[in-house]
Design goal:
Blueprint: E1 2-9, E2 15-23, E3 38-42, H1 51-65, E4 73-77, H2 82-87, H3 111-123, E5 128-133, E6 139-148, H4 152-159, E7 166-170, H5 180-186, E8 190-197, H6 204-220, E9 235-236, E10 242-246, E11 251-255, E12 262-263, E13 268-274, E14 279-285, E15 290-296, E16 300-301, E17 306-312
Parallel strand pairs: 3-4, 3-5, 5-8, 6-7, 7-9
Antiparallel strand pairs: 1-2, 2-4, 6-8, 6-15, 10-17, 11-13, 11-16, 12-15, 13-14, 15-17
Length: 315
């Protein structure tokens, strides 16, 4: 059942409309769902991250196909930044801001601050939320859940249900308090941030795994009785370091190994080329043995550009 969450007029005759598709058990009416667990699946905060569009499509399709399996409420929000999705802009058009940097918002603030505050109200009565992101245009990520170390004790067990390769526990110093996930976790809504794929693209295999993972979480919570494929055992970064490779020169980056592979210390991850002189300017080498979970997708690099991230093998 498609519902309008909020709507308001904007300049030049535009209108901001945010919608959701609500799913609930077969035979119940919308006003008779008290006491049921509720999961919110959120995407499109960043308009250039499109993996979530396919995930929302496939999840909506499966839930609509088998409402008899559902024992809870699932609300699917494909586009919290609908104008950004329509125009492939990361931020909110007109306002030139990153929507995921203004939560929990302000009911008495500017338009987007008010929108953020209304969305927090909308999600505040849910038990769980999954905030789906892709990487940007420059990097490709394996399916992963990113968790604030302060919330790890509550969230890691749910993150491992999502059929991801990797659960990355961030240190508190790297966590932004202005994100949707931080705001919801701080009020008791268990919120997982999923990242997979690359900006402005859809990686169907990753998306279908994440849909299966969402159904698996629902099943573990007694909200879904339908079939679920077996999920992979996630690597959890709790006691493992992440090694970064950054470009030391500018040029054209060409990878020399496969994304998501296991690499060894001394292995060449890729090379930075000079098209004018026909020379290799730099070989980008891993300093550690481990899982290559982030790899440069966009070929043009400058000094300091991120090339790769590697999760060090457990010692």
């Amino acid at each position: 059942m498609i519902e309008e969450v909020l709507s308001l007029s904007l300049p030049v005759g535009e209108r901001l409309v945010i919608k959701k598709n609500r799913h609930f058990p077969k035979g119940l009416k919308p006003n008779n769902v008290e006491g049921l667990k509720r999961l919110c699946v959120v995407s499109g905060i960043h308009g250039d991250e499109l993996e979530g569009q396919y995930i929302c499509y496939e999840l909506n399709r499966r839930l609509q196909e088998h409402p008899e399996y559902l024992n809870g409420i699932v609300d699917v929000y494909p586009a919290l930044n609908p104008m950004g999705v329509d125009t492939l802009q990361r931020g909110v058009p007109f306002f030139d801001l990153d929507m995921n940097r203004i939560f929990p918002g302000n009911a008495n603030g500017a338009v987007e601050e008010w929108v953020a505050s209304e969305l927090i109200k909308e999600f505040s009565t849910s038990d769980f939320a999954i905030d789906i992101h892709a990487s940007n245009l420059f990097l490709r990520e394996i399916p992963q859940v990113r968790v604030n170390i302060n919330s790890a004790e509550d969230l890691v067990e749910y993150a491992e249900m999502l059929d991801v390769d990797f659960v990355w526990i961030h240190q508190a110093s790297t966590v932004l308090e202005s994100t949707l996930a931080y705001s919801l976790n701080s009020i008791g809504v268990k919120t997982l941030v999923v990242e997979a794929g690359v900006g402005m693209r859809i990686t169907v295999g990753y998306c279908e795994r994440l849909v299966n993972g969402i159904l698996n979480l629902l099943k573990n919570e007694g909200m879904w009785t339908g079939p679920v494929d077996p999920v992979r055992k996630s690597i959890v970064s709790a006691d493992r370091s992440v090694s970064f490779i950054n470009a030391e020169t500018s040029g054209v980056f060409v990878p020399a190994t496969r994304h998501s592979s296991q690499v060894v210390a001394g292995e060449i991850i890729g090379r930075i080329l000079d098209p004018f002189e026909g020379k290799v300017k730099e070989e980008c080498v891993s300093a550690v043995k481990g899982l290559l979970f982030t790899l440069r997708e966009y070929p043009i690099v400058n000094e300091g550009s991120l090339i790769a991230r590697i999760l060090e093998e457990q010692k």
